[in-house]
Amino acid sequence: MRKFTICFLTVIALAPGFCACTAAVPKSPVHYTYRVVQSYPHDRDAFTQGLVFENGVLYESTGRYGKSSLRKVDLTTGKVLQMVNLPEQYFGEGITVYRNTTINLTWQSRKGFIYDKGNFNFIREFPYETEGWGITFDGNRLIMSDGTATLYFWDPETLQAVGRIEVTDNGAPVDRLNELEYINGRIYANVWQTDRIAVINPEDGRVMGWIDLTGLLRTGGGVVTADVLNGIAYDDGTKRIFVTGKLWPWLFQIDLIAE
Question: Residue 63's closest CA among 104, 96, 97, 102?
Answer without folding.
Answer: 104
